[in-house]
Amino acid sequence: MTTRKNVLVIGAGPTGLLTAYGLAKQGVHVTVVEERATLDDSPRAMVYLPSSLKALDDLGLLEDAEKVGARGHAFTMRFASGYIGELDHRVLQEHTPYYYTLHFGQHVLAKLILDRFLQLPNTSVLWGTRFNRVLDNSDRVAIEVSTQAGEQRLEADWLVAADGARSSVRKALDIEFEGFTWPDTFMATNVYFDFAAHGYCENTMIADPVEWAVISKINNDNLWRVAYGERSDWSEEERQANVAKRYQHFLPESASYKLERASSYRVHQRCASTYRAGRVLLAGDAAHATSPIGGLGFTAGIQDATTLIEALGLVLNGHDEDVLDYYAGERRRIFLDIVNPLAIEHKRRVQEADPVKRAQDEEGFRKMASDPNYVRNALMNLFALVSTPYSADWRDRLSERDVREPHSMPLFTATDD
Ligand SMILES: Cc1cc2nc3c(=O)[nH]c(=O)nc-3n(C[C@H](O)[C@H](O)[C@H](O)COP(=O)(O)OP(=O)(O)OC[C@H]3O[C@@H](n4cnc5c(N)ncnc54)[C@H](O)[C@@H]3O)c2cc1C
């Protein structure tokens, strides 16, 4: 280990904490800077796809995750015709130990990692500390943060910006967040109801142009996520007041349920124009934002973290910085080539209004579900979110687009913010 070995991580979300933990395990001194006083426990991602299970396993976290999570095997798509297509992860059993999904809130994962992180030497979290601006980004990185005691200067060898989709670090460095915002407003509701007793598996999508929904198990106490689209021209109060009415489409008639919480949010397809600016590396939602249908954004953030842990670990052990450029290019490639188009396709399929296309979608699903090889390939394909390992010739695999400089021409047309 060289003398350059301290890292600042901005953001105590799952991406930041996972990166912080993975680096601290390698003996790096890591300080996490978080503007909130505690972890964010709002209802957000809660499905861990096989690639995430592998990432947690590699970091020694899967055993703990299994203790708090509920296992799921099936994914079903419900079509208006009444057909329910099913893909079962158990077809992967011969190929990977990760032939299931786990279900628990991302804040539970964050807490689990936080506890482990703080047990390691030379680790700390500065709660209630807000990143303001970058003061220096040359031999070392220096930033200004706000605390209750006033402004302070913090310094490190490297900085990981994992401060979410509205990343202040990304904005401070003037890195474009190229893409667009969907016109839709999504409702994320958590509800206690025994969906399993009514024939729902752990991961369900309901395809319908208006009453589309994603229904997923959150834990073994019968807490489930029901996500659906709601009017963007309504106030949050109006959307909240409409939850019971909307539930009539997803829950059996006269069902008795307990709503735990509900919140609405806007959905984006955006990607940072670069994931690296000098000594600053972007990861997770700070680097990319996507529709949550299919759970790919959160899943990609976990893979950003695992790739960054390895890349930064190598550099801190004397490897040249080329491996950080590889991190930036490879993760951007994976977002642009895989996550972004797949998430857009998931959203289209769930919301498709054209009856011809809906019939084609159903026909396609029937074909896929009837062939175990097809199912296996479809599910294994999600491992494509995992980075291709670093090698000195990594640039040959990437296009110019993946390794663009900050401030070059945008790839998408931004509509609004
Ligand atoms: C309502 C909602 C529902 C969602 N549902 C799903 C879902 O079902 N499936 C799915 O896959 N994804 C879902 N997502 C997306 C998923 O939550 C994100 O992909 C995930 O949170 C990304 O993790 P992250 O650690 O990169 O960022 P975040 O979780 O956003 O963490 C960023 C952290 O940085 C902190 N921070 C921000 N600015 C500063 C600053 N200036 N200084 C210090 N700290 C700062 C924040 O307080 C936060 O703790 C949902 C998102 C929302 C909003």
Automatic annotation (TrEMBL):
Keywords: NAD, Oxidoreductase. Residues 6-335 form the FAD-binding domain. It comes from the Bacteria. Pfam families: FAD_binding_3. This is 3-(3-hydroxy-phenyl)propionate hydroxylase.
